[in-house]
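Figure 2 data, in text form.
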Amino acid sequence: MNSNKPVPEPEIIPDFFHDPKSKKRYERGRLLGKSGFAKCFELIDSATKKIYAGKIVNKKQQLPPKHKLMDMTSHEILIHLPLDHKHVVECHNYFEDGNYYAIVLELCKGGTLGELIKTRQYITEDEAHYFMNQLLRELVLKIGDFGLATEIDIDGKRKNKVCGTPNYMAPEILWGEEHGYEVDIWSMGCILYTLLVGHPPFETQSVKNTYSKIKTNEFYVPSRIGPLAGALIIKMLQAVPSSRPNVHQCLTVPSGPSPQQLLRDLDQQLFELYTSKPHKKVPILMDEAEDLAAIPMVWVSKWVNYSDKYGFFGYQLSDDTIGVIFNDLTKLLLHVDGKAIQYVERDGI
């Protein structure tokens, strides 16, 4: 079956961009990412060789009638350019030519949460707890895309402007109601869900269906998600804005097991390991009972705690057995021969 629709030609991005005001020349590097309206490339200053991130917006692209590209780009620049904060990606410059708008940004080499999810599909609950703390406390992560943001000029003032990315947009925005900071808690709930599940809670094949699911609050939390994380997601994604927790309440939700708990669990494992194999015990005569050398002893010779960063606690025993305790309390044991690996469920099976 033949189609009469013209096949769109692939967009050819120029190798160099010229800023007519500063006379700077930027060489286009590798593609860093793309969105519905823009593509982000490395931009290399030809004079200094310093590498930036360049958000490139094609002026000739076709957008829905309600979206005016020039207004959207100007609005983003007006919000982003004056910001000076260590947890906001720095906006260095912007310019345009006949075909493109270009926003020159600080290059963050650590990658993005989106890239992490694409690589890993989803992360552990303790890793998600770590990243949520960064976002809510503004400790390490940087915010960098203000393309669909809005500005609150008076604290407490309610807005009625549609803003935000479709998959993370709160229902009151879609209903055209006035809204405030509660929409950010909703968006953070969507981010938490995405980190743990691998996709946004209301994601569908079309924006229309996504909006419909958001309005009806139609989502579910997979059974593999722990009760604490699942309960927090449900609270953050309440349809009624006033029912959602504030930032402080989100931060006070407990995380997974502490290092002390992991050590106690390790101690219990060692005890069970020792007592479950009586045929391997060295026979002890009563007259030798006071000789410590006659008692087989196993202890932790090395350990490393990555429970917050990567979701596991690793250790090596004095008999060269290596073990890993994951934050969901499942375990992996590498036996002394280096060939046999044993997986242990939460219940010890």
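Caption note: The chain has a mean pLDDT of 77.
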